[in-house]
User: Fold Nucleoside diphosphate kinase 6 from Callorhinchus milii.
Amino acid sequence: MEATVRLSRPVLQLTLALVKPDAVAHPLILQAIHQKILENDFIIVTNRDLTWSREASQTFYSQHSGRFFYQRLVEFMSSGPLRAYILAHEDAIRHWRKIMGPTQVCRARYTAPHTIRGSYGLTDTRNSTHGSDCPESASRELATFFPEFSEGAWAASGHSRGDFLYH
Ligand code: ADP
Assistant:
């Protein structure tokens, strides 16, 4: 009797990754971050370049309103172009956050120098990248940046790249 080998497919999770204005402003850093995404086996489901209005930045970071860095963060995030990615991987949220490194740049430099923030972060605010912090945030953030994207259609498509986007 022929043996049947069943290869189980990994369960892919989606996350939103943003490259912040400090990193987009430097083409070599933007390229290095893109390379990190590829080297770490993410599927780039899609990506988009855009510039935020002040209002969009305020809304996105409203959970931090009232904190000492909020105004600075809002100004910075609407100060120049961003790149947004939908990334897919097993445990994508945790995987991407590990590759980004700690929020605060000194901590990143000294404890995780090979992470994106450890390598390229400039200050605690200008720290190169953002990543969703839980599945609920990921769904909300994907919808903010890619309103035409359907997680359900993507899953039903067999996790392909890009071609499930309906305009
Ligand atoms: P993360 O981006 O690592 O998930 P948070 O959600 O706590 O971190 O913060 C959102 C963003 O706010 C950070 O990426 C950073 O740009 C900014 N920020 C957070 N903490 C500080 C701080 N102590 N000083 C200045 N900016 C900060």
Observations:
- Confidence is low (pLDDT under 50) at residues 163-167.
- The first helix runs from residue 21 to 24.
- The CA atoms of residues 117 and 148 lie 30 Å apart.
